């Protein structure tokens, strides 16, 4: 039987999962994330959820192939709705849009409870997700950018905040990413390109104040995260 490695994006998600905790992997698709963590004996068991039967069957088949199927409960459901409340304490949601991730969290508030850890890898709408986490009372306790398949992604780790979280425009864009990593610089470059494009668009529409605000934010991100 051939072994497999997670790609850098899912490997980073796996790194944030706490040792010995039961995992719920939402949108599991192929099931590789819980399978890898079980093979490495990092977690005792997992729930693997997907809204579509095809991916869930693939996850079951992969888990059986790698001999860990009996340690995974497979759930055909929307988000966390088919997983008993508090049955898992680490939740991974990778490869989905930020708005969908927020909807999943709103639909199952226990996921944002005391002692829970969320590991989120959004594909889109990342600033909206960071703001939404603040509004749900979740603090980003760690965040790291990663390159995979020629694209830079961010992985967010969030837990119940001990004090109110302030979500500034800079926080919305860059969260808890640290300037010490090359991947953060690449992420910052992508973000600033988007902000400058929006700023130019505003200029063309005569919205000069908004254009300046977006430009100022882009300049601040370059100064803090992308300056050589
Ligand atoms: C792009 S794949 C990501 C697979 C894997 N998590 C990864 O990052 O490689 C997204 C998966 O999420 C599933 N999905 C989409 N919306 C969902 C929802 N509301 N609840 C559960 N699964 C969902 C899709 O069926 C698909 O299998």
What is the fold's blueprint, element by element?
Elements: H1 8-16, E1 23-26, H2 32-39, E2 46-50, H3 53-65, E3 72-76, E4 90-96, H4 98-107, E5 117-122, H5 126-135, E6 138-148, E7 151-160, H6 169-174, H7 182-204, H8 208-226
Helix pairs in contact: 1-2, 4-5, 7-8
The structure holds S-adenosylmethionine.
Percent range of helical residues: 40-55%
Number of domains: 2
Biggest sheet character: 7 strands, mixed
Determine the mean pLDDT.
96
Instruction: Name the CATH homologous superfamily of the largest domain.
Output: Vaccinia Virus protein VP39
The best one-word shape is elongated
Radius of gyration over all CA atoms, rounded: 19 Å
Q: Approximately how much beta-strand content do the residues carry?
A: 15-25%
Number of beta strands:
7
Distance between the termini: 46 Å
Low-confidence stretches: none
Number of helices: 8
Strand order in space, largest sheet: 3-2-1-4-5-7-6
- Helix-strand sequence: HEHEHEEHEHEEHHH
Helical/strand content category: alpha/beta
Ligand inventory reads: S-adenosylmethionine
CATH class of the largest domain: Alpha Beta
């Amino acid at each position: 039987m051939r072994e497999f490695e997670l790609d850098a994006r899912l490997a980073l998600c796996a790194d944030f999962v706490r040792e010995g905790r039961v995992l719920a992997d939402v949108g599991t698709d192929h099931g590789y994330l819980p399978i890898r963590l079980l093979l490495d004996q990092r977690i005792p068991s997992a729930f693997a959820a997907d809204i579509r039967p095809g991916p869930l069957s693939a996850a079951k088949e992969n888990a059986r192939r790698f001999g860990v199927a009996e340690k995974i409960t497979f759930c055909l459901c929307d988000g966390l709705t088919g997983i008993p409340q508090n049955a898992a304490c680490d939740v991974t949601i990778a490869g989905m849009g930020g708005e969908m991730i927020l909807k999943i969290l709103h639909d199952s508030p226990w996921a944002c409870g005391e002692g829970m850890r969320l590991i989120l890898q959004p594909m889109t709408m990342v600033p909206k997700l960071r703001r939404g986490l603040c509004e749900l009372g979740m603090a980003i306790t760690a965040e790291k950018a990663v390159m995979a398949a020629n694209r830079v992604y961010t992985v967010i780790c969030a837990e119940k905040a001990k004090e109110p979280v302030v979500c500034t425009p800079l926080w919305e864009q860059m969260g808890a990413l640290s300037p010490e990593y090359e991947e953060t610089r690449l992420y910052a470059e992508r973000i600033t390109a988007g902000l400058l494009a929006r700023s130019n668009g505003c200029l063309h529409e005569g919205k000069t104040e908004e254009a300046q605000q977006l430009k100022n934010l882009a300049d601040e991100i370059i100064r803090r995260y992308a300056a050589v």
